[in-house]
Design goal:
The chain has 201 residues and is an alpha/beta fold. It contains seven helices and six strands; from the N terminus they run E-H-E-H-E-H-E-H-E-E-H-H-H.
Length: 201
Amino acid sequence: VIVTAEAYHGNSGAVAAISPSLGKKSALDPYVRTVAAPDSYRLPAAEIGRRMAEEVARQIADLERHGDGLAAFIADSVFSSDGLYADPTDVLAPVAEVVRKAGGLFIADEVQSGFGRTGTHLWGHARHKVDPDIVTLGKPMGNGYPVAGLVVRPELVAEFGASMRYFNTFGGNSVAIAAAQAVLDTILEDNLMDNATRVGS
């Protein structure tokens, strides 16, 4: 798995193992590699995506050298834990291309950048013109009500369902789903993305 150098994707089990921002209290697993977040301060904008894709390719090669290979690349599209690099917005498309060429999945962590928070797009990955294989959703989804979600390409769900037995006691809780639907309705009906663009510009 490849993540950015200061990424935070959660603090339980498997996601803590891919969250370098947790520091020494939660060591990264040996199959995890990190790359620098896109640095628009030190690099010309036209070079950022290419440089990040090259760094991802180097880390894939290192995983392969150690007999692991690449399962996935996961990123928050505004790199909030790395320092909030919202621009440029063409960084992740070349990375996704390298990841898929190596047989990996591109995972968009939309907990920070989703639900219109960037002002221009409902989903942060859409700003980068990337269609992820998996999208993770969380905190803002229920506007304070505990709910999370996972969006997965249909063929991946079919493959998972054919090979794994999965059950979730609280999955699809109707109250949580109602809260999430109300949040989406409010964002869209009250034009909150336009408001975010106006206020934030």
